[in-house]
Amino acid sequence: MYTLHQLNIIFKSLFKQAFNEDVLSISPLPASGSQRQYYRLKGKKKTALATYNHQLDENKAFIYFASHFAKLGLNVPEILAVNDTGDCYLQSDLGNLSLFDLVQKSWEQGSFHESLLPYYRDALSHLVHFQVKGHQKIDYNKAWPEPKFDKQAMLNDLLYFKYYFLKLHPIPFDESRLQFDFENLASFIEKAPSNYFMYRDFQSRNIMVFDGKPFYIDFQGGKQGPLQYDLVSLLYQVKARMPDDFRAELKAHYLYELSKSIDVESIQFDRYYPAFVYLRLMQVLGAYGYRGLIQKKPHFIESIPYALTELKNLLENLPLPSGYSELKQVLEAVVALGSAYPLPSEKKTGKLLIQVNSFSYKKAGIPYDQSGNGGGFAFDCRSLPNPGRIDNYKMLTGRDQDVIDFLEAKKEVADFLDDVHNILSRTTENYLERGFSDLMVNFGCTGGQHRSVFCAEKTAAFLRRKYYQAVVELSHIELVKSKPKDA
Known about the structure:
Layout: H1 4-19, E1 25-28, E2 37-42, E3 47-52, H2 56-71, E4 79-82, E5 88-92, H3 99-108, H4 117-133, H5 151-164, H6 175-189, E6 196-198, E7 207-210, E8 213-216, E9 223-225, H7 228-235, H8 244-259, H9 269-294, H10 298-317, H11 325-335, E10 352-360, E11 377-380, H12 401-408, H13 411-434, E12 438-445, H14 451-466, E13 470-476
Helix pairs in contact: 4-8, 5-6, 5-9, 6-11, 7-9, 9-10, 10-11, 13-14
């Protein structure tokens, strides 16, 4: 590991080596999903991007692939200089505008606009060259972390989903049956022809728009593999929210471009395509769980509701075959998590949005604040009388009348809510006066089933009665379970 001072010395030396020019400024760039660190270096006339990454094999793969694709005339960054130890290098500066930025700007205007389609068509035409021409004379022994997207790599993606998303949520499932379905899905996908270069993360964040042309970055995870995965990665990028008719049009364009190089019918492209959509969505949910819920990186958490929406549409429009019963049940339960991960409002109402949640301290923990404000109130209900300890109430929730009657009869519960409501009244009035847009209020108990649900229901009703100027949304995170457990 280097200190910042040591990195600056290395970067200045590489910049001098590349341009015979001194660095005038070094600016860190926002962190990405990886451990790589990026900096923009500016001299009097030249600029470059500097990368520090202690994973040397990953660096070698990126540098090798960049050289290979540049020789084929593909638009990739030029490697300008590499230090002796191989953990720092300079690449050409392609600016800050990605295709994803254009997509986001389009959505700010209310839709995924058709003016984006030429960018996507160009990207898909280039993707064919990456996959077919890029595969020729490439040395996959230099790929990282493995040379081929084989059955084990597919199972790794599925297990990534299981351990870093599924098991972080209150979804019951049968381990052996789910593994059986994973094995069958991977065995089926493995049959897809795979003598091509697989980019691995071909999505709009990795397509830079520079001087009006698309440039391609972050291909260091590339390997030998099937064609469908990369197409799915771009067309089903969940936060892009591409409409189905555009998706179909772009898929047809890709297949037309592909037909110029290979016999598309011979590879049975469409037979395997839906399975790759499921595989990719599960892989990205695993990434959102690991990078977002565990590592607390905001934009990964912000993507979860879009992934759940896409998965819901997929289950409705391209349902799994009957042989995947446990996986189907699991994915339907994942979709039901949508109440815990609501989509942000597409249009601002101009009103204060108060999000009231119940949650379990023991399971998912305090909900993440998707507004970007870093969180709000978290009231601990575990000191209150627990109806979950009474046999007749164990299978009920804080929305059932018997549990409501039990808690309403307890003076300490009424006192607790009075205190909470007094605090929230002062805060809400302050936020309304100052024109704030978001307030988050969380109630937690052991299981997220009885006390926290009751308090969240009462508080949401109180706020709706008192503050017509605000919009109050209510979510019970643990009640997505089909069979509630003890609180």
